[in-house]
Amino acid sequence: MPAAEPLQRAGSHSVLSDLQFKPHLVKTILQEHKDGQKRTRHLGRRTIGRGLQIFLWGLRIYVFAMLLIVLINVFR
Amino acid sequence: MPEEAETGREGNLEWPVFRDRVGPAGAANREDTARALDRLRVLRARRGSRWLHLAWLLIGPGILVMLGENDAPSMLSYAATGSRFGTGFFLPFVLLTFVMAFVAQEITVRLGAVSKAGHAELIYQRFGRFWGNLAMIDLLFTNFLTLVTEFVGIVAGAGFFGVPGCVAVAGSILVITGAYSFRRYWVWERTVLVLALFNLVFIPVALMSHPDWGAVARSFLTFGPLPGGLNPTTILILLSDIGATITPWMLFFQQSAVVDKGLSSHDVNQGRLDTALGAFLAAIAAIAAIIATSSLYLHHMDAGQFGAARFAQALVPYAGRSGGALFALGILEAGLVAATTIATSSAYAYTEVRAQAGSLNKSFQEAKPFYGILFAALLAAGGIVALPGFPLIYVVLVVNVLAVLTMPPAIAFLLLLVNDHEIMGEHKNTWLLNTMGIGVAAFVSLAGLLYALTTVFPRLHL
Q1: Which residues of chain B lie closer than 8 angstroms to A15, CB-CB?
Q2: I need a labelling partner for B292 at 20 to 30 A (CA). Which of A21, B304, B327, B336 fits?
Q3: Residue numbers in B near A14 (CB within 8 A)
Q4: Domain assignment present for B42
Q5: How many domains does chain B have?
């Protein structure tokens, strides 16, 4: 499907196709959205300290143990 | 033309960079235009101080997620609760679980509106591939099992009206496909919202079963009675009712839907309203289901004999044929709505972490992996339900329990992300919201531990 497919075909109002041919307006309206996405995508990985790592592993062990318990319960 | 994504790289981290494409005639791309139109309407409503219109434009993800979680296994869990315990402890308890669901889901609104990234994407970016993969495995595993139970509900509900199982599965997939065929988030959201509001059909069923309203009021005031006390069966039902309200897919779905809808940080209050309204409506429907089936408890019907739509048949003597039919329709609708929201949640999460295009504003050609995962999950789950001899009853029994047991890590990531100043800035959690969030996490974890204790020590009576 071409990127510039008229939007009326998607069952929308004619204002959609008007807007589609105003890319600068679209860009302006979505500026905050795009900026937010860009900012988030450039954040990088956070530091996972020893305490946090132990905490996350503890929760993972909790999940595995609980899955085992569910299996025991089902087979019973 | 398929969406083409380049990959940005910084150290070990990869992120998708979608080209700012314009069409051959200088037109903006379809997804951006659709979202821009939605934003334009919001901006105009806000500028004109048309607050009701603004609320109408911005509601959606919250109501969908809450009514979507009132899915087939959840409604069957509430039915089992009513038929086994009547009105009593569980009515206020279910209300409490929806308050907790609101606390967790409100965080996803802020996360999505501020970061413009889905939940899975944020976990991968901030915690790396290892923890991201584990969260993803939890999500996809529980989502698939839940999806299977949605089709069990669809087949059971349709069975009340004599519709064969394979016809019910095929028909429901057709309806769901119809909602996606508009290739527009807004239209999909409104279509599913209309379907989701049908969840309120449990209210007339409750009225038709002529409940003792005095007993209903007393149960809210006293948190009782709880026949049999806290034995292993009660704890299983307790856990199942928690799992009927708070599950990992809800976190992933609402955050991704908030991003796909294009909510901004200025819309957080409307997002909260949407979530609160969803929690309120879903709580009313859940409580109505318990009240409706409490007539079975009062008439000493053995709840153990009911599976799926047999609840509807069992209700006929007390709520009438139309009451039973409405109950069966409610289960069918619950399965249908949840099948679309849960499959969408899997597709969002999968494409977010694979840095592929995933939006309901895209066509199938533009977002093949997104729709591919979505329909593959639907077809596989529907196919399993049609398999003769598949132990569906075990899946139905454990699906809500599994949802609760995989919840603590999901809430932990949620709280870590919402307290991440680099992501949230001024919108990060306050100490009060953190206390409430930690309270929900502790409650869910303790419920899981209680379940483990009663499984390992079956004679335990608390």
Answers
A1: 37
A2: B336
A3: none
A4: no
A5: 1
Asked whether residue B38 is domain-assigned, the answer is no
CB-defined contacts A:B, below 8 A: 175
pLDDT at B250 over 70: yes
CATH code of the domain containing B437:
1.20.1740.10
Q: Find the Cα–Cα–Cα–Cα dihedral B35, B41, B42, B47, rounded to 10°.
A: 140
CA B376 – CA B396 distance, rounded (Å) = 21
Neighbours of B77 (CB within 10 A): 29
Query: Concatenated DSSP letters for B334-401?
Result: HHHHHHHHHHHHHHHHHHHHTT----TTS-TTTTHHHHHHHHHHHHHHHHHHHSTT--HHHHHHHHHH
Q: Of the candidates B153, B160, B171, B157, which has an alpha carbon nearest to the alpha carbon of residue B393?
A: B153
- 8 A C-beta contact, residue B274 and residue B363: no
The predicted complex's ipTM stands at 0.79
Closest chain A residue to the Cα of B260, Cα to Cα: A33
* Confidence category of residue B87, pLDDT binned at 50, 70, 90: confident
pTM of the predicted structure, to 2 decimals: 0.86
DSSP state of B425: G
Q: Is the peptide bond before B225 cis (omega within 30 degrees of 0)?
A: yes
Instruction: Name B371's bridge partners.
Output: none
Please give the pLDDT value at position B335. Answer: 92
Report if residue B79 sits inside a domain: yes
Domain coverage including residue B394: 59-456
CB-CB under 8 Å, A40 with B125: yes
The neighbour count for residue B459, using CB atoms within 10 Å, is 7
Q: Do A5 and B363 make contact, defined as CB atoms within 8 angstroms? A: yes
**Chain A residue closest in CA terms to B3:** A3
Q: Is the pLDDT of residue B461 over 90?
A: no
Per-residue pLDDT band for B21 (boundaries 50, 70, 90) equals very low
Provide, as residue numbers in chain A, all residues whose Cβ is less than 8 Å from the Cβ of B131.
Answer: 56
Strand B13-18 relative to strand B5-10, pairing = antiparallel
Identify all chain A residues contacting B1, using CB atoms and an 8 Å cutoff: 1-3
The residue written with tokens 């334009």 in the block is B40
- What is the C-alpha separation between B61 and B278, in angstroms, rounded? 9
B275 and B62 Cβ atoms separated by less than 8 Å: yes
Name beta bridge partners: B5: B18
Cross-chain residue pair B452–A65, CB shorter than 8 Å: yes
Residue B7, strand partner residues:
B16
Q: pLDDT: is B417 or B17 the higher one?
A: B417
